[in-house]
Amino acid sequence: MIEMTAELPWIAAVPVALLLLIGAGLTLVGSFGLLRLRSFYERVHAPTLGTSYGMGCTLLASMIFFSVLQGRFVIHEIVIGFLILVTTPVTLMLLARASLHRDRLEKNEQVPPPR
Amino acid sequence: MRWLLPHPLVSLGLLVLWLLLNRTYAPGPALVGIIVALMGGWALALLDPGRPRLRRLDVVLKLTLHVLLDIAKSNLAVARNILERKSDRRAGFLRIQLELREPQALAVLACIVTATPGSAWVEFDPEDGQLLLHVLDVGEEADWVRLIKERYEQPLMEIFA
């Protein structure tokens, strides 16, 4: 792998490195938010950094890296991105609704009442 | 033709997905892919989710562009919120009255809202169209209503009209 990367021309290596750093940075900040934010509903927002542009930048970097190295279009990362995009709302909604249901049962004043 | 390909676009999408994942166009995997694509179309026909008509490709493109921009902006905003610990940040629930009733369009809206950091779709009442959102930094409530209703709901209604 390391010898392979040495063959990567700088014109591709620079954007790949930048995209990887941005993607990993956003995902790291999102994970940090899980520690830092106080309520459950606030913490629901933190991982979406990783599932939106955190994922997007990493996948784009992977597409450029392997397309340039192999000299052909490597685009099956789009499938990964699409699947993450359509499946995260399901998990997030399930978590948020489960938490809302419990808070309402416990008569927590912080959450809006059912209509 | 209809019995063989009840959902031609879905079947085509499945075939492309299969070939992309296998990373080959060899006849063997392609044949399996065609079978998978056909069966996927039949399964969807049995589930019968309705047949949404997509109109206005220009609106689809504009909405996609807007969403990509908004997600980028809110990525930065949420990252700042996490790192800086702003004192005037107020997280909270918002209720928004939606006109949209098409299930597929609502699903797309849910994906958009959830994919955008800082806003999460919590609950939707299909009878009176009330949407409950949770927002990390509320700021001006009217801005959120305008964002959802004018920037997302309006184009979605044109697309799924």
UniProtKB/TrEMBL annotation, chain B:
Transmembrane portions of the chain: 5-21, 27-47
Subcellular location: Cell membrane
Keyword field: Cell membrane, Membrane, Transmembrane, Transmembrane helix
Coiled-coil positions: none
Matches recorded under Pfam families: MNHE (PF01899)
Membrane topology: Multi-pass membrane protein
Superkingdom as given in the UniProt entry: Bacteria
Entry-linked InterPro entries: Cation_antiport_E
Family affiliation: Belongs to the CPA3 antiporters (TC 2.A.63) subunit E family.
Record's protein name: Na+/H+ antiporter subunit E
Source organism (scientific name): Roseococcus pinisoli
